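Quarterly update, task 2.4: magnesium ion-bound model.
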Amino acid sequence: MSLLVGIIGKPNVGKSTFFSALTENSVEIADYPFTTIESNKGVTYIRSKCPDVYLGNKCSPKFGKCVNGTRFVPVELIDVAGLVPGAHEGKGLGNKFLDDLRRADGFIQVVDSTGSLDQNGNSIGKGKFDPMDDAGFVHAEIVMWLANIISDGLIRNLRKLESEGGKLDSIIYDKISGLGIDPKDVTLAVKNAAIPSNLKNWDDQVTIRLAEEILRISKPGIIVASKGDRIESAEAVKLNGRGAHVVSGDYELVLRKAAKANLVEYIPGETSFRILDEGKLNSAQKEALRKVSDFMSHNGGTKTQEAIEDLVRNVLKMIVVYPVEDENHWTDKNGNILPDAILLKQGSTALDLAFKVHSDLGERFIRALNGKTKRVLGKEYVLEDGDVIKIVAAH
Ligand SMILES: Nc1nc2c(ncn2[C@@H]2O[C@H](COP(=O)(O)OP(=O)(O)OP(=O)(O)O)[C@@H](O)[C@H]2O)c(=O)[nH]1
Ligand SMILES: [Mg+2]
């Protein structure tokens, strides 16, 4: 299972545009609320320095690609319907659709940098709304969604705990076991939020506090302010200062499409692009690309790729590790060089990698070998970003 990131936010802010730019999937995009009803799922890629540069031979990725020593490592994305205040009570499309995000490892909340939309996603004129104001209620709706999952049947379980004994954190964990949350994170959240184990002291506020803490620890997120191409640079600087990533999903989408059509050379995340053949462009295309280029030069790129990479690298704290079967040639059984690039949490060990590749490999783990240094590694070895590792297992 690869990493999964959920894109959330109020309606009409540009979630699907951001999703489409990153995944290159074509989806419905329109200037009114609730364009998206069914979730869109796709795959995007984060950049990682490919160890093949040390080898002198090009890698052959099973998934993604490698361009001039930059490996593109897959990450799954889901774009869901817009959330409005009171969604947990059924407002708008409600919050049932958030169940598609159960397995999400982290969230990207999209806000509208132009401040033109009210809380329901209707246009109210530019600058009428503080872009960062959404952040509060959208987060609150996610918290309520999780709190509802936790509270389902909880009273009965707490009663049982009081009469028969047991552990509070394992009861909570059972409730949310389908959400890809580490049991250790649940234990930590119960402790941090000082959750009481007796029914007498339990009320809805306790459940909400617990849901909030579990999300903070286990499914963190970032804020992306989209439509950055429609605001002044000074406003963008201010928004960045308030912790948002100002991006233009729309311009990233233009560039990805133009690159696919061989009109431009553009590598996601770069701060500029190159027009391949001026003669192939009509005047509207030339004008569109000129605007994109202007925006990129003062914004330092469209910042779309950087946003997902900031979430994966700095917030979710993931590293990229390359498992191989031949530690000398860095190949699999069939001679493919560095076929897999795996995302693991910082601090993961050689044994964690073995389990991630295959549970069987974890169970039969004997030792690992570092492909770069050729050193023998034990199961406790803490992996480093860019490691090339062979796992040796019993037959
Ligand atoms: N200029 C500009 N327009 C954008 C950008 N991103 C989105 N838009 C426009 O904003 C409108 C809404 O975009 P969507 O991507 O459909 O927004 P959404 O958040 O998925 O909307 P719902 O599915 O209805 O919740 C469309 O008209 C887009 O073209 C951007 O970065 N720049
Ligand atoms: Mg949408």
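Highlight for this quarter: Residues 318-393 form a domain with the Ubiquitin-like (UB roll) fold (CATH 3.10.20.30).
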